[in-house]
Amino acid sequence: MKNGRNAPILKLYPNVIPVKGYNRSLLMDLQKGTPYLVPNSLVDYLETPTAGMKEYEEFILQNELGLFVDPELGESLAPLSLEYHPDSKINNAILELDAYSSWDVSSVLKQLDALGARFLEIRFLDVVSFENHFPELKKNLDNTTVEYLRIAVPFYPKLKEFLDSNLRERFFRLSTLVVYNATAGFELQTDFYNLLFTQQESVSHEQCGNVAVDYFVISTEGYVRNRNYNSCLAHKISVDKDGLICNCPSETTKYGNLDVASLEEVLSQDAFKDKWMLTKDEILVCSVCEFRWICSDCRAFTVSDLKNGKPSKCGYNPFINLWEGDENYLSEAQCGVVVTNGAMQVDDALIAALNLTLWE
Predict the structure, then answer these.
(1) Of 144-148, 185-189, 255-259, where does mean pLDDT reach its minimum?
(2) What is the mean pLDDT of the chain?
(3) Which of 35, 210, 267, 311 is most open to solvent, judged by the fewest CB atoms within 10 Å of its CB?
């Protein structure tokens, strides 16, 4: 910070968002998609500049996260707008199919198109369903609102032959094809989609809900959306192998059956959208985590039956900044964090003592 009443002040660029956690902060460069872990004192300095913080100033300038501006100009600079206006009723859809699925796939695809779905994931639980429906997908997804199609299929010996035969003509909507339970890999001409192999045995919904650094996504659209809506459930709809309609395949609550209800009818139910507005600010523990705006918030698997409970598949403790499996890791409970009656009580003195031992 420069000396003097009218001296220039250090301001972050509008695309650089500080996220203050309990024990440290994250600076998110939305334009570069880059995160920077910093001490909370750096964010405090940016909010109320004080002298003697040359190290922080150099960090901001060297990483092109901000610049010095005239105080009057700094006050007039508009922050990034947090207004978010969904461009469709449904943004994200997941379909599960097996050999016994009897619901009309073509009809569902037409309904998703009418709802404006942009991202579609189809999980084939067996080979029969994949070979039966893949040509149908290729035929019916052209000229729809779907922009990104992810298909998951089990590995089988004749898969390469089937794909060679059915992908001679470009499948414009296909973005990623995941081959799971893969005992071997093979090469195809995949200049228009990604072909991935994994040894994961199934694509069951029980595999969902994992929270890890590899899944963090930094983008302007994602950040603004997550500030307004639940990062996982909002504008999402799913159909399981039996034709039951739900918000997410991992959730046990079903809101209708394709035999008697349309996707639009289920979408009109208030209960179906009950958790859509639940943001990370309201999730216990997550509300003080520096990663909260780049993390997907699973509501199907939580540490308790609370609507605002922490995702149970998240092993990160923001009170000491350690992941489960790290040396000296402690759970939130071991740090004196108690959740009762839907509220969180924090033993600040105990946590301060623990952090002093762990980090200093």
Answers:
(1) 185-189
(2) 91
(3) 210
Which one has a higher pLDDT value, 48 or 92? Answer: 92
SS (H, E, C) the chain: CCCCCCCCEEEECCCEEEEECCCCEEEEECCCCEEEEECHHHHHHHHCCCCCCHHHHHHHHHCCCEEEECHHHHHHCCCCCCCCCCCCCCCEEEEEECCCCCCCHHHHHHHHHHHCCCEEEEEECCHHHHHHHHHHHHHHCCCCCCCEEEEEEECCCCHHHHHHHHCCCCCCCEEEEEEECCCCCCCCCCCCCEEEECCCCCCCHHHCCCECHHHCCCCHHHHHHHHHCCCCCCCEEEECCCCEEECCCCCCCCCEECCCCCHHHHHCCCHHHCCCCCCHHHCCCHHHCCCCCCCCCCCCCECCCCCCCCECCECEECCCCEECCCCCCCCCHHHCEEEECCEEEECHHHHHHHHHHHHC
Q: Enter the pTM of the model.
A: 0.88
Q: What is the per-residue pLDDT across 28-62, written as a single tens digit (0 to 9) for each? A: 999 999 999 999 999 999 888 776 688 999 999 99
Pairing of strands 148-154, 236-239: unpaired
Print the SS3 string covering 91-148: CEEEEEECCCCCCCHHHHHHHHHHHCCCEEEEEECCHHHHHHHHHHHHHHCCCCCCCE
